[in-house]
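fold-stage: in
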Amino acid sequence: MKRICHLYIMLFSLTIGLVGCGDNTGFCEEHVLTQDEIAEIARQDSINEAQQNSIDADLILEYTVEDVVSASSWTSKTLEIDLDTIAELFGITTDELAAGIAGEDGAPEIEGFAIEATTHDDNSVASNTSGVWGHWWDTSGDVCDTYNQDTSAFYAEWNDEDNVFAIGQYPGHLSVGDSITVLECLKYNDLRVAVQITYIVTAE
């Protein structure tokens, strides 16, 4: 008797399935995209790519720093940036800009932040280095945890006494030929500046 009941249940399920496919062919057949649908998907992908590749800044300053690969030593290179041009955009003096970055009392309120390379989203943390402005970066060009033995590639740390960046690698984490581009940024009122730094690792 149980075997007959099971047979009826199987036949009933099969019948329901066949009826369902007959009434709703869209569920059983693969949908073939039309040319209009393909064009719309391509348009949306293009918009998303443009948004990811765009840098939200009123001024972009580009710099390249080359450093010799090291398996065991911390390195430090000095990078001077064009403070005069940044100050001109902000409508303040270069001294006021430097004081603002340093967070001195009475100085203009300059905010340091970063832009992630993979998403171009803002990272509002001013610094995760020992300086008032600067970040640790991974090989993708995204901000990572300080001294992270798994992800840290190099750092860019603002020296507010000399008004320059100190840039160096986490030893043993990079190879010859590695090239990483990062975005250290400043904001004053509604104006934004991106300092684009490309860090290139060379042979000894």
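fold-stage: in (second)
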Amino acid sequence: MLELLLCSLLTILPDYLYRRYAQGRRLGKEITLYSVWFELRWGITACLMLTVGLITVIFYNHPTTRSATLFFRTVPIVSETNGRVAEVYVGATGAVKQGAPIFRLDTSAQDAAAEAARRKIAELDAALVVARTDIAAAEGRIQEARSAHQQAVDELETKQELQRRSPGVVAARDIERLQLGVEGRQGAIDAATAARQAAEAQISTLIPAQKASAEAALAQAEVELAKSVIRAGVSGRVEQFVLRVGDIVNPFMRPAGVLIPEGAGRQTLVAGFGQIEAQVMKAGMVAEAACISRPWTVIPMVVVGVQDFIAAGQFRGGEQLFDPQQVIRPGTILVYLEPLYEGGLDGVTPGSSCVVNAYTSNHALVASGDVGVGRGLVLHAVEAVGIVHAAILRIQVLLLPIRTLVFSGH
């Protein structure tokens, strides 16, 4: 409507003035409701053509969208393990700090595992003491076996010397018996030495390895105990937390609630523009936004990023071929906008729906001197008609509360 009124000032109004004052035709006489088309046909036709052209230029070079939202990230509140809730530290909603406990699971099994690991460590410490005692006992047996062995060797040497000096004095059977006794005493020495080495191996290798395994089991049990307390990963606000004591928690079924981080949805506005504006939308463009949660306010914005792909074209590899006809709705160009001034989004509720206008600027191109006079005038005109879109946005902002509260029936 605003474009039509603007174009009528340049077409229908001059045509009417010419008919009225140059040709002497009078409104209500020669110019009536039935003769308007015939009398003002040139002005009406030119007005319609100019209106269509002006709307095309405005909406292409200064695009607008109603698909703009302050998206914010949510963190699901889930546990790493299954279990029964033993204690809840927060209500259905409330603020939490990073690291603050949210709820705790029953830890009977984890406590038992940790206690078993501690008992195993104490048992191995006692086994270490016993092994040191076994080493001392083995040392005593070695000394005893060596003494008996030496005694048997001396007795055998004595008998052999007597046999050498006086053959037949000592029976051959006695010498063989003494030789077997010496070998037996040597075997006792070897057995005592092996017992000592076994005890030393237990102290140096077996018991430390078993203790390390028990300590690892204790550490694992303590980790499982730590997992039983679910804490906030970031500072924020807990919402829709309905978990209560006695409930069974399964991380694969559903989260217990959501955690909204602090500052989420208060820095960047995400807008989806039509695909036809793909060549127009550029980072650095000035824009304006108006959000429902903050009526009668126009927020200056700047485009900080333009996504160079359209989400509607994505697909996942699978066992079926993809058919482009399955894309029913065309996708949009995703644009990221930030406030031009600090605190521009203060008072805008995250998730609020917004209207965004972006404005093309050709000042740098015209100032570079790379364009001719005619094209420069056209580019200046393109920038100038942006004021029409800005005026439309402000009219929408003024009428938004009335349209929402009165005409929508809310």
